[in-house]
Design brief:
The complex is a heterodimer of chains A (979) and B (480). Chain A has 979 residues and is mostly helical. In chain A, 74% of the residues lie in helices and 2% in strands. In chain A, the strands form 2 sheets. Chain A has a two-stranded antiparallel ribbon with strand order 1-2. In chain A, strands 3-4 form a two-stranded antiparallel ribbon. Chain B is mainly α and 480 residues long. The two termini of chain B are 30 Å apart. Chain B has a two-stranded antiparallel ribbon. In chain B, strands 3-4 form a two-stranded antiparallel sheet. Chain B has helices at 11-30, 35-56, 72-98, 105-122, 126-144, 151-182, 187-196, 201-218, 226-233, 236-259, 266-289, 294-315, 318-343, 361-364, 366-380, 386-400, 404-430, 443-458, 464-479; strands at 61-63, 68-70, 346-347, 350-351. Classes of the chains: A mainly alpha (979), B mainly alpha (480). The interface between A and B is large, with 76 and 78 residues.
Amino acid sequence: MPDALILLSSIALPFLGAIVAGLLPTHARNAAAWLAGAIALSMLAFVWAAYPTVADGGVVRHAIPWMPALGLDFSLRMDGFAWLFAGLVSGVGALVVLYARYYMSAEDPVPRFFAFLLAFMGAMTGVVLSGNLVQLAFFWELTSLFSFLLIGYWHHTAAAREGARMALTVTATGGLCLFAGVLVLGHIVGSYDLDVVLASGERIRSHALYLPALILILLGALTKSAQFPFHFWLPQAMAAPTPVSAYLHSATLVKAGVFLMARLWPVMAGTEAWFWIVGTAGVATLLLGAYVAIFQLDLKGLLAYSTISHLGLITLLLGLNSELAMVAAIFHILNHATFKASLFMAVGIIDHETGTRDIRRLSGLNRSMPFTARLALVAAAAMAGVPLLNGFLSKEMFFAEALSAQTSQLFLLQILPLAATAASAFSVAYSLRFIHGAFFGPDPTDLPRTPHEPPAWMRFPVEILVLACIIVGILPAATVGPFLDMAAHAALGAATPDYSLAVWHGFSLPLLMSFIALTAGVALYIGLQKQLRSAPDGPPMLRSFDGRRMFERAMVFLSWRLARTLERLLGTRRLQPQLRLLVCVAILAGAIAVQVRGLGPGNVMPSGIDPVLALVWVGGAACAFGAAWLAKFHRLAALILLGGTGLVTCVTFVWFSAPDLALTQLLVEVVTTILLLLGLRWLPKRIDNPATRQAEVVTLTRRLRDLTIAISAGAGMAGLAYGVMTRSPPELLAQHFLARAYTEGGGTNVVNVILVDFRGFDTLGEITVLAAVALVAYALLRRFRPAPDSVEIPEQQRDQSAYDEARPDRSEGDTVADWLLVPSVLTRLLFPVIILVAAYLLLRGHDQPGGGFVAGLTASIAIILQYMIGGTHWVEDRLRVPPLRWMGVGLLLAAGTGLAAWFFGRPFMTSYFSYLGLPLLGEVPTASALVFDIGVFALVVGATVLILIALAHQSVRGQRAVPRSSEGRAAATRVAGDD
Amino acid sequence: MAQVPNLIPALPEIFLAVAAMALLMLGVFRGDGSTRLVSWLSVAALVVAGGLVLAVGGPREVTLSGLFVMDRFGVFMKLLVLLGSALTLILSMTYVEREQMSRVEYPVLIVLSTTGMLMMVSANDLISLYVGLETQSLAAYVIAAFRRDSARSSEAGLKYFVLGALSSGMLLYGSSLVYGFAGSTGFDRLAAVLAAGSVSTGLLVGLVFVAAGVAFKLSAVPFHMWTPDVYEGSPTSVTAFFAVAPKVAAVALFVRLLIEPFGSLVEQWRQIVWFMSVGSMLLGSFAAIGQSNIKRLMAYSSIGHVGYALVGLAAGSELGVRGVMFYLAIYIFMNIGAFAVILCMRQNGRAVEGIQDLSGLSKSHPMLALAMAIFMFSMAGIPPNAGFFAKLFVFQAAIEAQLYVLAVIGVLSSVVGAYYYLRIVKVMYFDDAVEPLDRAIPAESRVLVAATALFTLLFFFVPAPLLEGAANAASSLFAG
């Protein structure tokens, strides 16, 4: 049979079967069982078909391209060792399917059970047949996943849910560690391919990353095989249906861990680290499991701890770093699978026929189910290591290994045989308890059901397995010998030692140990009789040491307390701390970068500090400080102080001969301050500090802390600025523009030339955006309804009206009308002057400080002043600035200038310049850019006025809410009718 | 003046921008009743843009005076972004109708935001990077606060905006430092300058600030604070959008920024990325455990996923970048699927978002629960789901780059992460429902949940095409 067919079918069949079974109707018990059985048997047949190849020491391989970018194929590989496991998986699988058919009740959704079981079988086959490590980790996690589903099959019971969750949490976690370990191992070897990995033992063991890889991989293997200290999940998993336990905890799931250790044994074992980690885990598990098993009241619990103990034995054997021990381990894996599966099935039969597994209620079943009793007796005897049964053989080998272990630590040589004998005695004791407790003694009294023999087919799998125990026990070399030999050779290669599978090795030390263990076990059981009858569940001394509870406590701690604490410490929903964090991180990041690299002085010497400028800056800093301090309590004061800071900036620009910048900064400063002032109208005037003393201290501390943060952020930025400015910059764009401003743009005011010529297209875009912003602000504010508390008439107006009312000679509104009379007259006088200045700035802009933008802002300021002092009604009755028209004209002019270039056969926005002699004014530069500049001017004025109107009309509308004036409506319609 | 530049490589962006405006017009003139029509047209526009991306994509091409680059990396990432946007838009249609926030601006804003994202992916200059980032963000701020009558939604939008503005400020400040010290904002020039000479501290500080600004958009630790609040406060459909497309775009931008212009500083920025990655993975997994709101949980989950993706970036190798891209591709499928399920969570016609509200889902909606379980298992990185492979590649890249500690922390935090993902599975399957969720599930959601679940589950059969695509795209970043 072709290799590909064998391997692919072995993997694909169970998964396909799982899908089909999952699609069967809920109560199709027989159909699902037939399907599952047929699949398990055909898998067995396929595995058997590979026997001729692997028996010759060959390897069956097949690879399908999977992730070529990673050099990963989906590769399957079956050597003798994998063959043995694949046979175990499918063989025991077939028996379990048969057993489960009779075990599962008709009410359960049986097809789902078989679907999970088959999928698990596929995953397990995948683990043993994987030809590369990544794929192995992949199937490994799949077994965790499907075992979760199987254990949680009866998810209506709390025990099943808890058990399933715990099993998944522990094994999937281990699986992720394994995943990491596999990646590290692959990195060491340079390939994930199992053949390559198995051939590079020296490289792995001597690599610096050996230990991390080993620990991660062992975490995966030990959790899966329920080794101390991760053993606690296995007893919890006993909530699964018994066929699941029989399958998972004898032949498959828990064996995956030891399979992996054995698989990697040739390349990873042989070091001190391996010996200590694996050996210690093994010996601890061996003793602990066996000891605890004696005191279990639940038969399945007893078997669970016995399983833990036997896995410990196998782990210990693997940890001994001896080839013979390795062979013994493989042998014990086989033996344990047979007797433990049959014992689980026997317990299932008891549970099924009597309705309980409680050892205190069961007794004397030998009379009602004699045949099952005998089967269980033989299997338990194998578990106890009674001669002429298979368990005895591997135990003898174990004893021999324990006696001949090689290690630098001499005291171990005494401890190991002792531990082995003690554990063996314990196992005799619990086996006795199992058999004696359930099958012997007086007749049972209060069983839920009347016990009787199970259906013959339900007992059949047990019979097969027990038969195997006996035959192997009597004739080991003739039956299991070739298979074991093949597996050992496949796993160990040329290093396979000579060993003998005989029942009788003569009188030897191991035999003596067996004898002692048997006697001591029987004595122990008899001695413990009284205590066992009365004792509660769980072992004495270790009762408080409960892995499960510790796991749960750890989970609660991790998942609840730690998480909560972390969230409380690190998380917040408030904006301020979030902002604070952001700023602090930025400061820190900058500081670290500077700290690491050092920002030493630059190559440009800074000029001396002028004391006057320094003083101006002190004033500016004080203003900034005051603004920050007052921002929360008194916005108006904060705003005014902010203006002071802006002014200092302007002065600085002037100081360093940048009049253009200074002008722009000043105007922007004025306009924004005024707009902010208008906005302040709708906010509460001031918030008073809460009065209590303690709160003040807290607030003060917080504010001081924030101040510190602010100062360090500012200092950091200043430092960076200093760092930048004391270095001669690389060749930047500035030189480019300076050199070309006059020759190509016809202007000496470089900033303006950039705006209207070099970057004219950008400016066109910007003014378009400005127009859009103005329109949006207007549209948004038009429907804005001010908050009710801001609608009432301002305090000052109320006082004035009250004053009027109080006097008979004045009518209401007189004082208000005369309010700020002198300033208003002055501003009216100033209006034409400012407009003239604006025109001047506009015209001279190309060569000297000025330009359309600045001029537009200046004109806007003139209008804003009128609004502020004269009031909305007064201004709009007299001043006609239809903002939409201004904006439209501005845009058209600007765009038209650009388009005009086309008429002269030039690209868009090409500019033309010359000088024009005007009467009175003399020579005026008349670049085509001037027209563009006029467009900018018009647009800036229009946009500012439009926003202004939108804002100003808030107060008009606000008062309209108090029905008083109809003028507001007139003003509003005037603007609306503008377009 | 200059000739008209070659606009062909930018055709998808141009098309989307024009389409957004046209759709806005259509919507404005036809009113809010036409939201569904505009939504479907938006989806169509996104699909057309995807077609254009494929049509104009190819070997590296730089245009618009070096501001804009189109390469295979861009094609891959843009397709992911468009896919994410289109799918979340489809998902949100019924949701916005049921939540009475069906306004025509919604799809248009998503298209606009997507335009910004495409520009981010193709930015070849700090300036165009910023423009793309802001185009994306401004639209995002608005849709975060889309439900104006909800205080939570408004708060989310405002918070997003304020913090986003601050981080944009940092980005700009960093850019100006970079310009001041390197003399250029163009990626190609920067790369040449940095490769040629020694690196000044100012430039490094600039890089730090730029990285901080981008990290905010990524919601990587320590710039993650906004994520849970914004995810929780925004309408769920918007959260779904945030969790997918912007994240992909931000990662793409980060990758290009660090690999192309700053590629020669890998030793320096690796520390930053390392820290962000470890912080994100740990915080994402630990802080998620205590959550009871599923949107907050997904927020922390997304923080964690960004951490994993950054593991690949920290490697700084072609292998690492491939891992990042691959991770993102799988991430968006899982996330869209999970959010499709979350969007279906309604009780008595009201949207609910508690994790406990999922209890008993396996009984009331078995298929939905199964799909959600697949997504959760996949996010936890448990095979055979796609999430396993996503983690596989980034961790592998990290180990190849000898970042062992990073890889191990990654694995450990995914263990913790697995715990809270499994908690959702447990709630769905093991807890009894107090009140079952509504049965009516929109057809779009059904289709999308099924499709993404099948993708996630069956991905391992044919991983090669996606992997090849990612490898191909990653190599284009390293070719020049």
